[in-house]
Records
---
Amino acid sequence: MVFVEGAVPGGAVVPEAWRALPALSPAERVELMVSVMGETVGEHLPRTLRGLRERCVDAELAVHGGEYFVVYTFIDGEGGEECFTGGNPLRPSWPGPGQDGYADNVRRVWESVPESVRAFYERTHDGFGLYPHTLFGLYELKRVRPVYGVLDVGYEEPEVAERARHCYMFYEDASGAPFTLDILADRVERAGDLWWIDSTREYHVDFWGVLDQLLEAVIVPLEDRGPRTGR
């Protein structure tokens, strides 16, 4: 990974706002990226955006293997640094037809994903998670697939097996438990499912509301978090 210090090459496929990052101060970079994120999820992730404003000390443009992304640096509760990375929305990481993973990737059902979720991935970031442990956080599109077959969650029950086929994993917490989006739900406020590793499940939770709390739990120390809301 190399941080971009000069002008971004003209031929690079990146959001226009990203081109300004190398010339800005750290505080200005954070403010710019909070603003960019607010355009798609300002009303959906208020806790996360508050954590970004209060805890993020830089948002730098980086490149690795020809792919650009933004590295967010946070100060944790012990005063140490942690980093999140946000992928390039103009270069989605999902596999193409015929490539490994395409058969069960969310790309095949993308139009069934709620517009607010698609807006984040198409205009803000392809994934948003801890670096270098990118398994923990909001998944890159290449990893978004149904929960079916991933967890041992009682597939002998037909209703569980069927639900697992249309619940796509978008987030994973520190315990390895996925948070999924039910693409058949009538509205995003009831589209979230929590699949705990002890085989218990919580269905029909507010996808954005729970995701906001999950991200806040990583970004903001416990003593500084706002009151929790019901699921």
Note: Residues 2-219 form one domain.
---
Amino acid sequence: MADMVAAGMRPTQVIVAATSNGAQFLRMSNTGTIEPNNSADFIVLDANPLDDMTNTRKISSVYLRGASVDRSSYK
């Protein structure tokens, strides 16, 4: 994602490309955006990716189908 910003895309464009546009391209309904009745798969970051796209690597927590994922078992 940082490479996409370095290539000239705005951070907001990169995030939309990675989320809602990606879901639309893959024809995945009810994903890619946070809204009622959509699958609640998302990450919480420790820093704002609009300030620096490498902040997408600073993951605080992960949620799948609305439930918090215990990431310690994956390390």
Note: The chain has a mean pLDDT of 90.
